Amino acid sequence: GCPDGTLVSTFINSATSPDPYPERGRHRIEFAVGVFDADRKILEDNATSINNKLSYQPALKHDGTLPTSGNLFGFSSASSVISAIEAEQNGLLIRLYNTGGTEDTCGFVFDSDIDNVSFSDNSERAVDRNASVSKNTFEFSIAPYSLLNVTVKTK
Asked: Do 135 and 114 contact (CB within 8 A), yes or no?
């Protein structure tokens, strides 16, 4: 935005990277405009829900004992958001970051009991961090404007 309150944006479609001619040809560009509170977490949550909807990988039809729907885990936080989830051996790697200027407490609830929680930086080097673990839940704090990987192994 500009100091006088106007909003300026440039839309360039690039099919390949690098695209030597991004401004040529006909392009179909979809965009949305929304009005939200000036809260970075609210903005990120709304932008993610519009642009990066969760997808699933279907399997062939088979009989099974699990219910047809359920939750992998629950997440609560005042200013942090999840940016990626990756399957790890016997667990999940969850990447999140704090959008706010103050320390934030993040909480997770899993359907099964937690065996181990570990933390790493963006290069997946171990980070010393305390987590309060109780059966299928855990909490920890994250510094302002920081990124953290959380690896969770369940029983």
From this structure: yes
DSSP category for residue 48: H
Q: Which tens digits make up the pLDDT trace of 49-86?
A: 777 666 666 677 778 787 777 778 999 999 999 988 99
pTM equals 0.68
Token pair in block for residue 113: 């009991």
Instruction: Give the count of beta carbons closer than 10 Å to the beta carbon of residue 152.
Output: 21
Cβ neighbours of residue 31 closer than 8 Å, sequence gap 6 or more: 11
75: which 2 tokens? 């997440």
Q: Where are the beta strands (DSSP E) in 37-146?
A: 73-76, 80-88, 91-98, 104-110, 114-120, 126-127, 132-134, 137-142
Contact between 150 and 93 (Cβ < 8 Å): yes
Nearest to 143 by CA among 125, 119, 115: 119
Q: Which two tokens stand for residue 14?
A: 């690039």
Are the C-beta atoms of residues 150 and 117 closer than 8 Å to each other?
Answer: yes
